[in-house]
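ARCHIVE CARD
Drawer: 12
Card no.: 0347
Subject: one protein chain, sequence and derived structure
Cross-reference: see card 0346
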Amino acid sequence: MMSGEIKVLLFDLGRVLVDFDHLRSAERIAAFCNKTPRQIYDLFFESGSTVAFEAGKISPEDFYLQVKQALDLKLSYSSFEPIWNDIFFLSAKNRSVFALINALRVNYKIAMLSNINILHYEYLKKNFPVFGVFDKIFLSFQLGLIKPDKEIYNLVIRELGVSAEEIFYTDDRPELVQSAKSLGIKGCVFTKFDQLICDLNDHGITFLKA
């Protein structure tokens, strides 16, 4: 590859390679407290506790205790954990992206950058075989940083050993892509598989067709 071309393809995990629905978990948790699924989602899934957990700042047990207190939850940790993890599924879109990555890795270094907590990571590792295709994996709970903090992208750039301009990044959240692009990383917002193909082509990224 000539200098200046894209050398690394950096993918988000959630809603790109694996889909998820937090309301699945909220609906089950609602049976063990006096909150509706929507109230649980609003109080909990976008809370400071969740962000701290994804950044690796608190342990699974401490996270559970904060959830229990916030919701007055009548549920043990051992029962809470599988409910917390029961949010993931694979769509046709996810399968298409996975197949594409397998084709792209012939010509490019492939990396992942995900905001994720340790419980979800361990669950996905056991049940969804998506991690093995990546040359490098960057996870928020291991790094102590969370997107869109620019420092997490700077760390990724350093670890990959390339310039920001030699990285192409796709993520389903526009604000995360924008933060990366502000540092010089090339990127696009992931919406659907066909659009990803167009974005890759626009950046001169070639891939093997099935």
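Annotation on reverse: DSSP finds eleven helices and seven strands in the chain. Residues 103 and 208 are 5 Å apart (CA to CA).
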